[in-house]
Specification:
alpha+beta; D-amino Acid Aminotransferase, Chain A, domain 1; D-amino Acid Aminotransferase, Chain A, domain 2; nine-stranded mixed sheet; 7 helices; 18 strands; binds pyridoxal-5'-phosphate; binds 2-OXO-4-methylpentanoic acid
Length: 343
């Protein structure tokens, strides 16, 4: 294979779609998955009665590949995304994609799109977007007769404008998920319901909005596309405990980094919106968001400001960001098992 890179300005990348050369596609029918294949076609053709179109029977994942310090390419914790997609599939009655099939599909897409994988040393990565949808002839509200599983990938830069700098957020006046609904799984409908609150926040000049729990409207849930954490003035890492937020793989990873590397106590517990004064730093974490410091949170007529009046990145957030990236880029000797090398 010719190892050359596409003519892309890797420093200018945003979090936006770009057609890359190959994507993986596979179908489930009559109780089994076909072998799947790479294709250059970035359009899919599905039946007009497909459950994903009418009843939202569809889910996605997001993970990243990074060029490692030694030049190889590694994918960050694809096993965890495979398991989360299976968990989502169980909740909305889709066929489960086996873990090895999921990981191989991600690796194949990365290898086939070598020229789009940002080289080592840039603030960029290759975002992998697996998805699964209910397809086939159908009319009534029932699980689909067939499923499509596909994986594509795009080189991306920072999710929030301005990169690793504090952003301002506002508490949304809407719920993103119901208490026993689908907030804990990655179904498309959660994101459809977040579009309007996000737009309102953006129109007011905020980077994104923060949701409160849908039962009491009092405890922080998460950001539209990332989990929430805070560092208390006593140096503890605190993150919401809730059955209706997405279990973030980034959050799980930084919780391990806090406990095992930084030796910081970690607590998963409800965070009352009126108790934000306890934090010196707060942030959002996720695959796309990585670790994004939050400078201020506006709630009704109050504005809570964090590290250095919300203008600078706090020291723990900075340390976590550097640790996470050093692992993702193969610069570190710890947690090497999180990286799946693409041969
Ligand atoms: N919460 C929501 C609603 C998300 O969409 C995401 C992104 O995947 C996350 C949290 C972060 O999860 P992860 O770190 O696994 O990407
Ligand atoms: C991710 O971080 O992978 C997400 O799913 C966020 C996305 C909705 C942009």
């Amino acid at each position: 294979m010719i190892k050359e890179k596409a003519n892309i300005n890797w420093n200018e990348l945003k979090f936006s779609y770009l057609k890359t050369d190959y994507r993986y596609i596979s179908f489930w029918k009559d109780g089994k998955w076909d072998e799947g294949k790479l294709t250059e076609d970035n359009y899919i053709r599905i039946n007009e009665g497909s459950t994903v179109i009418h009843y939202g029977q569809g889910a996605f994942e997001g993970l990243k590949a990074f060029t490692q310090k030694n030049g190889s390419i590694g994918i960050f914790r694809p096993d965890m995304n495979a398991k989360r997609l299976q968990n989502t599939a169980k909740r909305i009655l889709m066929a489960e994609v086996p873990e090895d099939k999921f990981i191989k599909a991600c690796k194949d897409v990365v290898a086939a799109n070598y020229k789009y994988i940002p080289p080592y040393g840039y603030d960029a990565s290759f975002y992998i977007r697996p998805y699964e949808i209910g397809v086939g002839e159908n009319l009534g509200v029932r699980p689909a007769p067939e499923y499509l599983f596909s994986v594509f990938g795009v080189p991306v830069g920072p999710y929030f404008k301005g990169g690793f700098n504090p952003v301002n957020m506002v508490v949304a006046d809407y719920d993103r998920a119901a208490p026993k609904g689908t907030g804990h799984v990655k179904v498309g409908g959660n994101y459809a319901s977040s579009l309007l609150p996000h737009q309102i926040a953006a129109e007011q000049g905020f980077a994104d909005c923060i949701y409160l729990d849908p039962k009491e409207n009092r405890y922080i849930e998460e950001v539209g596309a990332a989990n929430f954490y805070g560092i208390t003035k006593n140096g503890e890492f605190v993150t919401p405990k809730s059955g209706s937020i997405l279990p973030s793989i980034t959050r799980l990873s930084i919780m391990e980094l806090c406990e095992k590397v930084l030796k910081i106590p970690v607590f998963e517990k409800p965070i009352d919106i009126n108790s934000l004064d306890q934090f010196s730093e707060v942030g959002a974490c996720g695959t796309a968001a990585v670790i994004s410091p939050i400078g201020s949170i506006t709630y009704k007529d109050k504005v809570f400001k964090f590290y250095k009046d919300g203008k600078e990145v706090g020291p723990i957030t900075k340390k976590l960001y550097e640790l996470l990236l050093s692992i993702q880029r193969g610069e570190s000797d710890i947690f090497k098992e999180w990286i799946y090398i693409v041969d």
